[in-house]
Specification:
Oligomer: single chain
Low-confidence stretches: none
Number of helices: 8
Number of strands: 7
Order of helices and strands: HHHEHEEHEHEEHHE
Radius of gyration: 39 Å
Largest sheet: 4 strands, antiparallel
Strand content: 15-25%
Helix content: 25-40%
Structural class: alpha+beta
Length: 218
């Protein structure tokens, strides 16, 4: 009986070996064959993988960050006629279509204003009083309103009046609403697609632009 059990075990092991190794496929018996060579092609080669040191990782990150930037649109603020003439001269050697001047309109600006003060001592005293009640201030953009204080600028008289009510509620009595700037019409420089080649030439425009700067278009 024991011999029979041993013989059956040997036959079973032999049969499994033949089945698992495909020796019985001609008779229709065997494991399911996997035939997807594309999986082998997609496998990561372990010998090509390595762990980067911190300094190597930083170098890779710097290389990615320093990659080519996409073209961007840049524009100036409103320009004066002498600036426009100087810019046209500076831009003559630039590629056709890389620049143009477009008409722009800047809306009027209203401010909540305190002043005009007769001397800087009174101006300093008013600044100290505003700090005590927590009101922010700045110099007015219009030189004709100096020395004075702007408690905020607004695109409409109604918005400035609303802010005036807020500062009066805090105890400010001498503030009033004035027009800091009327509506203005003019032109600005537009560079619609500044790529790497044009970025290297932006310094050519610094002198004719003067205090104006180029900013992303909006």
């Amino acid at each position: 009986m024991l011999r029979l059990i041993v013989l059956l075990l040997l036959l079973a092991n032999g049969g499994y070996y033949a089945w698992s190794h495909g020796l019985l496929l001609p008779w229709g018996a065997g494991p399911l064959q996997q035939s997807e060579p594309q999986r082998l092609q997609q496998q990561i080669q372990p010998q090509a993988v390595r762990v980067l040191r911190p300094e190597e990782l930083r170098q890779v990150q710097d290389q990615v960050a320093q990659g080519p930037r996409p073209p961007e649109c840049l524009a100036s603020a409103m320009l004066e006629e002498p600036q426009i003439a100087q810019l046209r001269t500076a831009l003559q050697s630039w590629p056709a279509g890389s620049w143009n001047f477009e008409s722009v309109t800047e809306p009027p600006r209203w401010i909540v204003y305190m002043g005009k003060y007769p001397d800087v001592e009174l101006l300093a005293r008013k600044r100290a009083e505003l700090r005590q009640v927590g009101i922010t201030f700045d110099a007015p953009g219009n030189p004709q309103l100096e020395p004075g204080l702007s408690l905020g600028s607004y695109p409409s008289e109604a918005a400035a009046q609303k802010q005036l009510e807020a500062v009066v509620a805090k105890g400010v009595r001498s503030a009033r609403v004035v027009q800091d700037r009327p509506e203005q019409r003019g032109q600005r420089l537009l560079l619609p697609a500044v790529d790497e080649a044009l970025r290297s030439r932006l310094d050519e425009l610094k002198t004719p632009l003067g205090t104006r700067t180029l900013r992303p278009c909006r």
